[in-house]
């Protein structure tokens, strides 16, 4: 089984940090590529984080916390690919 790490994506030219405000999945949930798995806040706008592959959520690497800023590229979840 192959694992895929989901990272904070680049969102615009100037956005370098975001807050992960809410997970919409839990460990063990099955997702399809493109499913929304979390809500991020960037520059006072909510942005949806999508699954990069289909599979099962095996790990959530950060807690949802709107006061902690995460840099672009930081791993936030691991998906066991189908």
Strand order of the largest sheet: 1-8-6-3
Radius of gyration: 12 Å
Q: Roughly what is the average pLDDT, rounded to an integer?
A: 93
Q: Helical content, roughly?
A: under 10%
Counted by DSSP, the helix tally is 0
Straight-line N-to-C gap = 7 Å
Which residues sit in consecutive blocks of at least 5 with pLDDT less than 50?
none
Report strand %.
Answer: over 45%
Category from helices, strands and their pairing: mainly beta
Task: Report the major sheet.
Answer: 4 strands, antiparallel
Number-wise, the strands total 8
Q: In sequence order, what are the helices and strands, one letter per element? A: EEEEEEEE
Shape, per Cα inertia axes: globular
Could you explain how this protein is built, in words?
The protein has strands spanning 3-7, 17-23, 30-31, 36-42, 45-50, 55-60, 69-71, 75-81. The chain has 82 residues and is an all-beta fold. The chain has a 4-stranded antiparallel beta sheet with strand order 1-8-6-3, with no helix packed on it. Strands 5-4-2-7 form a 4-stranded antiparallel beta sheet, with no helix packed on it. Strand 4 (36-42) and strand 5 (45-50) form a beta hairpin. The N and C termini lie close together (7 Å). The relative contact order is 0.38.
List the helices and strands and how they pair.
Elements: E1 3-7, E2 17-23, E3 30-31, E4 36-42, E5 45-50, E6 55-60, E7 69-71, E8 75-81
Antiparallel strand pairs: 1-8, 2-4, 2-7, 3-6, 4-5, 6-8
Short description:
With 82 residues, this protein is an all-beta fold. The protein has strands at residues 3-7, 17-23, 30-31, 36-42, 45-50, 55-60, 69-71, 75-81.
């Amino acid at each position: 089984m192959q694992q895929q790490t989901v990272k904070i994506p680049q969102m615009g030219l100037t956005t370098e940090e975001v807050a992960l405000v809410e997970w919409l999945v839990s460990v063990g949930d099955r997702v399809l590529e493109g499913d929304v798995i979390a809500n991020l806040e960037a520059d006072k706008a909510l942005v949806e984080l999508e699954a990069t592959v289909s599979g099962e959520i095996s790990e959530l690497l950060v807690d949802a916390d709107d006061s902690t800023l995460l840099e672009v590229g930081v791993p936030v979840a691991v998906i066991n690919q189908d």
